[in-house]
Please model this.
Amino acid sequence: MIAESVRFALSGISANKMRSILTTLGIVIGISAVITLLAVGAGTSNMIKDQIGKLGTNVLTVNRALATGGRTTGGSATGTRTQSTNLTLADQQSLDDPVLAPDIATTAPVVQAQAITATLGTSTHSITSTLGTTPAYFGITNFTPTAGRLLNDADAGQAVVVLGNSVAVDLAANVSTLVGQTVSLNGQNFTVAGVLAPKGTSGLNDPDDVAMVPYTTAQDKFTGYSPSLSSIQVQAKSADVMTQAQNEIQQILDARHQVTSANRDYQVRNQAQVLSTATTTTQTLTILLSAVAGISLLVGGIGVMNIMLVTVTERTREIGIRKAIGATRGNIVLQFLVESLIISILGGIVGILIGFGASSFEIAGIKPEVQWWTVWLSVLVSAGIGLVFGIYPANKAAKLRPIDALRYE
Amino acid sequence: MATPIPAPAADAWAAPVPRRAPRPVIALDRVRKVYGQGEAEVRALDGVGLTIKRGEFVAIVGASGSGKSTMMNIIGCLDAPTSGRYFMDGIETGELDEFQLAQIRNRKIGFVFQSFNLIPRTRAVENVAMPLAYRKVPRRERHQRALEALDAVGLSARAGHLPSQLSGGQQQRVAIARALVTEPVLLLADEPTGALDTHSSEEILDLFESLHARGRTIVMITHEADVAARAERVVRMQDGNIISDTGAVR
Model:
């Protein structure tokens, strides 16, 4: 009987093609919107997870505080400081303490040189971020070489540079040819030790638009012998002990700088935390957008019900004939229910396909990723819509008395 | 709900044994049908008794408002009487629920309507096969039986046509094929020639006569005297009562 109902329902649907298509469209739009928006949400959260992975899930950055005027008093194992510097090489070295800071794996000092332009022959590139650091930096920040090598301890004081991928690509078509060549940074000659593998863009700034030179070389050539660091990169032993590591940093630096949490002249930032905040925001947005898409799905469902009611009225006479020749209530309910199910499931399937299609494009810099559970959910929801919004018209049809239905013009 | 199998032909050769008379196809016992209440009360049927035996060709005639349409609805199990009893092929219909009535309509009655009432956009053969679909006959067998039924009304050449591609007379013959495809005990026709020209009407009535000759029980509702004249028994109605009945021939 089911096969028969499907056949009857299909003939009913094809009798009014335009109307059926328009009704289906309501479901198509709803389902494809839900799928696409959830895919964009998943894509965003994947991108954020990727970035966390690139940054290292266990990396903390110690920066100078933004709004402090600096300290005038010092007092530490390395001696007295009277300058308004608040992060020093000594601070960095004090963090490498297996007793006081058992959760810290490695640290690296970073000094930042401003406005450096790299020149090779006629090619030039203005580097966004030129860092003087130690070999530990590359391990902490997950940089790997694509050609040549990274910095090592023997490079200290030497005029060698490791170029980020964006810089290298600008200087030479084939980045591996750069290794061993001499490039000029603001007129001073450096030998290229290696070129870094690209990390890929992560939003606003390009992490590959960098160059690294040994810490001492940077002081020598660019920043002068100021003891002040731009930042200290800290790698915790694992992602699970981030909080402990952060507390240890604060205890050590608070003691060294003679500050408390109220007047701290530095700040410890956890990149992963920043990004997880972003993830939460994205999720909230995704839920909101999906709710809007869900409402459009509901409207589509009401459209199905509306059309089914029209169909029942239109075919009152046919219902009468069918009842006269022996159709039971169940037969009639089934026929109309199957019809609304076909309309909405068809809409669901087309919606899923369109959702997949739309998700294959990059939307606002995000690569959407369709999640399979949304596909199953869509199928279920569209079938549910067909049932819920079809049952009332189908019942209405089945309840018609044959003599009334036959008399209907 | 098992359909009693009509006595097999072989019985005719068997030695006569004392048996009860075969049960009538239709037995109405003091059937009343009242519409409305109080002042607006209309007695469409006012205690009608009527028995129609197997193989009869009966015309129920009367002016409009005589109650013949109500009679048709009750005989066809489309409507229930207000009081009184109606036995359809020996089954008391008053005790049946909606589902069982639908099955009675499907198995025991073949309907022919004035306006043909074929399902639009559905081919003739599928229209004819439809009652079989409601009793779960396999698709292939359905198709076969529908073609046979169409052949019996002389329309096998039009099996693939849509109702809109057929003339009125042809549509009515398709409807008759649909009524016959289930081998019902009763062919119930409501003004079968009402929407047809004289020529097509003659064709339909000839078809009825030949069906009658082959032993079908036919009840035909009509208001035309010349159509009624083709039947072998005429029941005349007025104001919800039977005023004359030429009586059973056999």
